[in-house]
Amino acid sequence: MPDAAPTYLQAIRGALEAEMAADPDVVVIGIDVGAGGGVYGATRGLLDRFGPERVMDTPIAEAGVVGAAVGAAMAGLRPVVEVMYMDFLTVCLDPIVNQAAKLRYMTGGGVSIPLVVRTQTGGGRSSGAQHSQSLEGVLAHVPGLKVFLPGDPRDVDVLLRAAIRDDGPVVFVENRRLYNRRAPDRDDGWEPLPPGRARVVRAGGDVTVVAWGRMVAEVRRACEDPRLAGVGVELIDLRTLVPLDLETLVASVRATGRALVVHEAVGEFGPGAEIAMRLTEELLYEVEGPIRRLGAATAPTPYSPPLEEAALPGAPAIADAIHAVLTG
Amino acid sequence: MSDADPDVLLEDLRTMARIRAFELRVARLFRDGRIPGFVHVSIGQEAVAAGVCGVLERADAITTTHRGHGHCLAKGVDAAGMMAELFGRATGTCRGRGGSMHIADPRIGVLGANGIVAAGLPLAVGAGLAALRRGTGAVAVAFAGDGTVHSGAFHEAVTLAVLWRAPVIFLIENNGFAEFTDTEAMWRGAPLVERARAYGIEHAERVDGNDVVAVRRSAEAAIAACRAGEGPALVEAMTYRLHGHFEGDAVAYRDPEEHARWEARDPIARAVAALEAAGRGAAAAEAIALADAEMDAAVESGLAAPYPDAESVLEDVHA
After folding, report:
1. How far is CA B308 from the centre of its chain?
2. Structure pTM?
3. Which residues pair with B145 in a beta bridge?
4. H or E, element range at B285
5. Domains and CATH numbers, chain A
6. What SS3 state is found at B167?
7. How far apart are CA B209 and CA B76, in angstroms?
8. Which of B134, B162, B112 is nearest to A27 (CA)?
9. A15-22 mean pLDDT
10. Which A positions 42-101 lie with beta carbon below 8 A of chain B?
């Protein structure tokens, strides 16, 4: 009997452990990552194996910690910093946006910044507006940052290890509502793909749906909606927002003629707008209707469960949106 | 300065004269419209850059500020490359992508001037941490202005450096002004050196930043403490910004008497006088003449250099 496939969370820990074992310059830094094992347990056991010099607890000082990690990356380490919630990136945007993202360019290629900022999001658990926001569109808007957002536990391993080996800064966005998910037991044709390659996780000829993170699973659920019976939905897990695999998206939409982008980030000025526009630029005269997007309601994430459910894109709303794209 | 080693003082004078010659040309060329953007020069503050970087090894790191030309030159960045960078040329230190506020040459430990006040402090702490973890024996110097110390980044950087016992020297160059505002007007608490001690920085001192001999001695002690594993150090160098915040600043906020007092304490004039007293006046004059000639040549080669190819605009966005 083979061991059960690792969960999404176990895959994070496994990738960190493997990369730390492979390269002594890889260090893990963050609030509660050492003795505490990480607020969700992603770094549990690393302190025992690698010691406090490589698994470093820090004070609650994200701007200083991420700034120091940028400097350490310039000086030869490969830090993996945990920023506990994606919302907290806003208190350390200077080292991410003005330093990590820009320094390579500003120095004419003189410096490399092999930095990974691991963070997590995941609305739908009444965490309140300051512990729930998906900010990947903000990050992707900053030239120089790469943005990885695995939705499949198997992609966690591939993408986190690639992020650590990348010579530039990567923001690695986990979704806490996926932490306990495992890959399916059956063979679904999964094979490793590098960053910058989207994955067609469900083939279909009628409409292309692009998603990432937890929304991939949510779109799968939407496909079970009776109104979509017999509809060939082609679901693409983008996996990385930067680099963006426009080629795979264009090929799919060229074949289906219709497309929808679904994300947990709010809709207005969201990443779906950029993806829809890029597809439109390529395929304006080939599509059979407008390319649409579905994001969260443009409001701070509400606390009350029914309000939050109304704000986030769930399977029924996604099914509605697919239906609208098919008939629009 | 009377008991200084004249050979060492002469070396520091060379560095100061090179910085002064560079900055005077930059100020003039900016006024004449030959340099785009904005520039912040360090005229009057050269002793800090020369005295500190004179003690550093090639492998040691520095981070600096928008007013960083002097620190970069003193740490060994090629002057012609820097001048070409200010002109936005392809042969510039950063291939024309950085400009005055972003000179960097990581091969010699210059991790960059920085346009964000206080941003260089955590970077230096990280460089110190990397040196510690990799066992290189190097130290990192964070050059920063007096305006920096009120920012959250200063608090966080110092907190982490003390916690990690990182070999970092916080070199606070107090030039009297935080942009247009009198430094004294923006703080009502204890003096900086006392604050540093309260954070747990044992090696903290204030020094006359216009006396290159004193700066060098202070830097030697701070760097030695760092190399000995005593954790971070802080030096507050008291100096004065003889020009405005940026070139073109009308400096309406400045007291002319105060300016005259500090002009009389010009670090270069003081070093020259000390060398003359030691019978090395001719060598001092030669150092200044050589610096002028070097910077004239840097201007000439910089202005003759090509601009970057427009097609290269997307190069080096990603590793």
Report:
1. 27
2. 0.96
3. B173
4. helix B281-304
5. 8-178 (3.40.50.970), 199-327 (3.40.50.920)
6. coil
7. 20
8. B134
9. 98
10. 53-54, 56, 58-59, 61, 63-77, 79, 94-95, 98-99
